[in-house]
Specification:
There is one protein chain. The chain has 210 residues and is an alpha+beta fold. It folds into 2 domains: 79 residues, 3-Layer(aba) Sandwich (Glutaredoxin), CATH 3.40.30; 106 residues, Glutathione S-transferase Yfyf (Class Pi), Chain A, domain 2. It has 9 helices and 4 strands. The chain has a 4-stranded mixed β-sheet with strand order 2-1-3-4, covered by helices on one side. Helix 1 runs antiparallel to helix 7, helix 5 packs across helix 6 and helix 7 crosses helix 8. The chain starts with a strand and ends in a 15-residue tail after the last helix.
Length: 210
């Protein structure tokens, strides 16, 4: 497998965690979202992913984009360890939380949007992450065990940790979100979350390396 990734991309990080948890070895092709006006806009990368976004994963003779679609494929083809619970209610909760983050928070503070917002980008990012986290904190108070849904790591957790990292990057006050903070801390102790961390990627700049 070949993963087209950017060290700081939260969507790429979700997929890196899934690959690590499932023990799938892969090669990384770094796509720098800032260099050369954004390497994702190159003709070469557009041929890989017409949406010109990371991640993209070449695996089993196909090329997939969109982090959750990639994780679903990995779950369907390499089911151990499981990232979606067997129980239909818990499975729905996992998908709800993953979508809440992947559709309801992250796109509003991604690079392309913040460029358009301009000088108020920090305030914009803080507001949208905070409003998403207010809802997420309430949801997690009903679903969480050690992790987002019960005591097993799930697709929801793969979305949570990179989004908390984004929140910290944009200096969001995490005080009002004790459940999010507790789960994030527990997840960051797991090896798959450590090895996939932005500070430990082949394209991580020297000054940001762990």
């Amino acid at each position: 497998p070949i993963l087209y990734s950017y060290f700081r991309s939260s969507c790429s990080w979700r997929v890196r965690i899934a690959l690590a948890l499932k023990g799938i070895a892969y090669d990384v092709v770094p796509v720098n979202l800032l260099k050369d006006g954004g390497q994702q806009f190159s003709a070469e990368f557009k041929a890989v992913n017409p949406m010109q976004q990371v991640p993209a994963l070449k695996i089993d003779g196909i090329t997939l984009s969109q982090s959750l679609a990639i994780i679903h494929y990995l779950e369907d083809t390499r089911p151990n360890p499981r990232l979606l619970p067997h129980d239909p209610k818990k499975r729905a909760e996992v998908r709800m939380i993953a979508d809440h983050i992947a559709s309801g928070i992250q796109p509003l503070q991604n690079l392309g949007i913040l460029k358009l917002v301009g000088e108020k980008k920090m305030e914009w990012a803080q507001n949208h992450i905070a409003s998403g986290f207010q809802a997420l904190e309430q949801i997690l108070q009903h679903t969480a065990g050690r992790y987002c849904v019960g005591d097993e790591v799930s697709m929801a957790d793969l979305c949570l940790v990179p989004q908390v990292a984004n929140a910290e990057r944009y200096k969001v006050d995490m005080g009002p979100y004790p459940t999010i903070t507790r789960i994030n801390k527990a997840l960051l102790e797991l090896e798959a979350f450590k090895v996939s961390h932005p500070s430990r990627q082949p394209d991580t700049p020297a000054d940001l390396r762990a």
